[in-house]
């Protein structure tokens, strides 16, 4: 079973992100990749998380990425979700059970994707430790309740994430880390 497990923050997560980003750039040489960002809970210092590094990979064209990137990323141990119901995103998992545990997720999108706005959530939590602590408590609670159901776990966070995103948008003093 692919259980949802939350662990204490690992200070090596930024290093694990950088190492994997370098591997991805190496196998996808050329100008297909526009940008790679660390996002998700492992990108927030001190935040408890599932021990899975989320990489947001911006590519100039998803159709080109489907042709070029999938087979190359499979050489790094990634499995591509071909039946993803979201056509504007490619999703790949490293360590997909039964070959697990999961270690990395690639969310591949074009530069204009709304998924880039999730960096706002990451940056807000980085700058508001009280909000990050509330999020950690919610994640622990949901992981206990939905340990065997990743979709329910993720759905359980949706309202909270949306409320934090709204706070970030409305906070005139808030600046993203990439501004």
Shape: globular
Q: Which bin fits the share of residues in helices? A: 40-55%
**CATH architecture annotation name:** 2-Layer Sandwich
Largest sheet: 5 strands, mixed
Compute the separation of the termini in Å. 41 Å
Give the CATH H-level superfamily. Beta Polymerase, domain 2
CATH topology: Beta Polymerase, domain 2
The number of helical runs is 5
List low-pLDDT spans. Answer: none
Rg over CA atoms: 16 Å
- How many domain modules? 1
Total strand count, please? Answer: 5
Strand line-up of the largest beta sheet:
1-2-5-4-3
Protein name: GrpB family protein
InterPro entries: GrpB/CoaE (IPR007344), NT_sf (IPR043519)
Pfam families: GrpB
Topology readout:
Layout: H1 13-27, E1 33-39, E2 53-59, H2 62-74, E3 78-80, E4 90-94, E5 104-109, H3 118-127, H4 129-145, H5 150-170
Parallel strand pairs: 2-5
Antiparallel strand pairs: 1-2, 3-4, 4-5
Helix pairs in contact: 3-4, 3-5, 4-5
